[in-house]
Amino acid sequence: DSSHFLSPSDTRKYIDSKNPSLEMLKSYIPNPKLHSQEKRAVASAKAADKQRDFRASKIRGVLHCDTCSAPRCFYSTHCVGSRDEPNKQQLEQLLGRMENG
Known about the structure:
- This protein is of the alpha+beta class.
- Helix content is 43%, strand content 11%.
- The protein contains 4 helices and 2 strands.
- The protein has a two-stranded antiparallel ribbon with strand order 1-2.
- Strand 1 and strand 2 form a beta hairpin.
- The protein is globular and about 45 Å long.
């Protein structure tokens, strides 16, 4: 969707010109306590998850295996922007694990 997302070259230009911090990027994540639409979506996901062993609302991303290309989910009980959000060291460790497989 060209009207919603930046192209890779425009994204690089934006990053180089603005040098966004993690705090600035986190400000773009909707806060379910402040946004009623987001609050309803979170409540709906939690209600659906209560009946399952697997909690889809805890998924934080999907990676593909380097060997077999199978999709793998990674999840966390702590969401960025929440009271118990991951700290900087935990986020760096996660990114390192994602890059190294």
